[in-house]
Amino acid sequence: MIIEVLVELSTRSVDKTFDYLVPPQFVDKIQLGIRVLVPFGMQKLEGFVLKIKNLNNSKYQIDELKEILDVVDEEVILNEELLKLGKKISEMTLSTLISSYQVMLPEALKARKKIKINKKIDIYMVLNKNIEIPILKNENQQKIVDLLKRKKRILKQELNKISSSSVKTLMKNNILLEEQEENYRLKQEYVKKEKYPLTKLQKKIVNEVLESKDQSKTFLLHGVTGSGKTEVYMELIEEALKNGKSSIVLVPEISLTEQIVSRFRSRFLENIAILHSRLSSGEKYDEWRKIARHEVKIVIGARSAIFAPLENLGMIIIDEEHTSSYKQEQTPKYSAIDVAKLRSEYHSCPLILGSATPTLESYARAKKNVYHLLEMKERVNQKPLPEVTIIDMNQEEKRKNSHFSKILLEEIKNRLEKHEQSILLLNRRGYASFVSCKNCGYVEKCPNCDITLTYHKTSGMIRCHYCGYAKKLLPTCPECHEEAMTSLGIGTEKIEEELMEVFPSAQILRMDLDTTTKKGSHERMIKSFQNHEYDILLGTQMIAKGLDFKEVTLVGVINADTSLNIPDFRSSETTFQLLSQVAGRSGRGEKEGKVFIQTYNKDHYAIELSRTHDYNSFYEEEMKIRHELNYPPYYYLTSIKILSSDYEIARVESNKIGEYLKNNLKNSTILGPSIASIFRINNIYRFQLIIKYKKEEKLYDVLSLLIEHYQSNSKVKLDIDFNPIHI
Questions:
Q1: For residue 598, is it within any domain?
Q2: Residues 646 and 615 placed together within one structural domain of the fold
Q3: Both 392 and 373 in a single domain?
Q4: Together in a domain, 551 and 413
Q5: Domain ends where: 626, 647, 674?
Q6: Domain boundary among 76, 109, 142
Q7: Each residue's pLDDT tens digit, 81-125
Q8: CATH assignment at residue 716
Q9: Order of strands across the sheet with 17-21?
């Protein structure tokens, strides 16, 4: 038998497979999609089996082929669907095939050398039923036997606590036998709850999906915050289960996983696997195999969970579909929504995209009937959406009320007195945005990136949030040598400090990237806030969507302009989505909620329309601007970044590429080359070209030739992104 193997070659950017001979002892183990260990030059590499051939199908003679060294897997890693899906992703993103397969898999199952995760095995002791057990003279031995007569099976480590020597003796005398059982690392916890009866509107939505003639249709579920979208999701999944089918549910933030998994487990018990980046390598390995072995039928997770090896899919749900985290920023730059569409077509199952603030592209597709639009315009039980007040901080600054307006402080105090909870959003972590000298104006910048360093007071460090560079903040300016260094701008750490000063008795929980680095921190924080152990939750955008706290009656946005000032064509859309989503955290229980948004741009349409929860008016306003500027959804975009550690090489090559594109893409507009939004990251200079087009049949061929031209150039790297989230 001859097999065609795809190995990972870190020094190559092209796909190439190699033929290997399978020795007789491995023939029965070979299947498509498993990993094998092969000799490659002086190395030993792992690779995926993509084809099984006989000698007539190979261009090589037997004596020209090397033999594989081992078969790594007992079970198939990449099933037939995933093998096809990887090829499609490679074509769509112009990425290598190996990178498209690797991105699907947990670390333990990637084709890489020296990565091995052991199964977690529990060893139980049982009595040997095939012998008659005598009365034992040794007291501990008899105690162990008596325990096992009552309990049938006990963990060996528990019996060792009585007497490890007695356990050994009993095993030696064949009285005790070992039984091994694999124990998955991620523990399942659930409390069975009765499901809520659906409202008339929820039933109507469910029926529209189930009765659709086109089973692989994409539905856009546009429902206001608190309208009961999750109940719709669970009902649809229950229907899929009744038909023997499985389901995938994607959530955009790890912080959302705890609450949604808790709700799903109360309904579907242990029939759930979880996949997200905060799991350990062992936990991901266990969850993946649990799915592949058909032990569960529901997978909940972040972006990469879209690759879960479920068979017979009956429902795919992407919650908060507008979130940018569904787009992979590293190669291959796939969109989880695009992958979901491919899987929906493969399995002929519905794809549900849910959001209170859909992307303009999704809503435009729904308007054109490319997607089927489902709308839920009211909260469950006709509860009102929270009242939103816009606070003009230009006026507040005259009163010198620090970073809090007078009214917001009064409202927080009021909630504390009523024993209600508040959520405060500031989408910037750290203590201060930058540090500078009051005397000479010197600003601390990252030596590797064109970005100012952010001050983190708790550690006393100034850090780069791009390359990770950090150093201790010193009071003396390195330029003028005066003790005049001061921090400017605000982050969540500084706001937390101010809150503690104003409300010393309040229990404050800060949730951002700095406080959620430890394993399980998201879950612990959300659970403790849900149990009302804290009065105020302060955080970045990770607290803005999907979370459901019944006692939260106040939401405050410290600075609504943070995302508005980003130089990106989506900044208004991002701002409206963020404000609308965080506003939706207020008043979800029995008590009415209020929202206060602090801004220096109170008349901006994104901020003004978030006050009235008016998505449709925002959509119309933003679409006019997109149409005028030829931006999505009217035009497609492709970004090409030219990267090099040598500034001059990057500049020259970006000009060459710009000319090449202009000469070969006649139906497109080429913008640039220009300096990327952050010119230097980790000592790599970055130039950018943007391709705008409605229809460009030659695009993939032209870009493929460009990639081929630069693949052997070690001094220049191309970074191509189709439909980028940010430019």
A1: yes
A2: no
A3: no
A4: yes
A5: 626
A6: 109
A7: 999 999 999 999 999 999 999 999 998 888 876 667 778 888 999
A8: 3.30.70.600
A9: 17-21, 2-7, 43-53, 35-40, 70-71
> How far apart, in whole angstroms, are the C-alpha atoms of residue 394 and residue 555?
21
Which of 253-257, 383-387, 564-568, 694-698 is the least confident region?
A: 253-257
| Claim to verify: residue 555 and residue 655 sit in the same structural domain | no
Residue 455 lies in a domain: no
What is the amino acid identity at position 255?
S
CA distance 339 to 86: 10
What pLDDT is stored for residue 288 in this prediction? 92
Look up tokens 């081929």; give the residue: 708
CA gap 282, 701 in Å, rounded: 41
Residue 195 domain-assigned (yes or no):
no
Q: Do 15 and 146 reside in the same domain of the chain?
A: no
Q: Of 668, 690, 658, 665, whose CA–CA distance to 677 is shortest?
A: 690
Beta-strand ranges (E) seen in 284-406 are 298-301, 313-319, 351-355, 372-376, 387-392
pTM of the predicted structure, to 2 decimals: 0.88
**Residue 508 contacts residue 412 (beta carbons within 8 Å):** no
Q: Which two tokens stand for residue 616?
A: 């449709």
Structural domain of residue 45, as residue ranges? 2-109
3-state secondary structure 136-148: CCCHHHHHHHHHH
Report if residue 228 sits inside a domain: yes
Same domain, 101 and 14: yes
Q: For residues 179 and 120, what is the distance between their CA atoms, to the nearest angstrom?
A: 14
Amino acid letter, 720: I
Q: Name the nearest CA neighbour of 225 among 602, 622, 555, 633.
A: 555
Are 610 and 689 in the same domain? Answer: no
Nearest to 498 by CA among 376, 373, 402: 402
- H or E element in which residue 274 lies: strand 272-275
Q: How many domains does the chain have?
A: 5
For 30, the token pair is: 């070979």
Indicate whether 140 and 105 sit together in one domain. Answer: no
Ramachandran area for residue 208 (φ above 0: left; ψ -120 to 50: alpha; else beta):
alpha
| pLDDT tens track for 282-338 | 888 889 989 999 999 999 999 999 999 999 999 999 999 999 999 999 999 999 999
| CA–CA gap between residue 250 and residue 259 (Å, rounded) | 13
User: Between 521-530 and 254-268, two packed helices, what is the crossing angle to 10 degrees?
Assistant: 70
What is the three-class DSSP state of 237?
A: helix
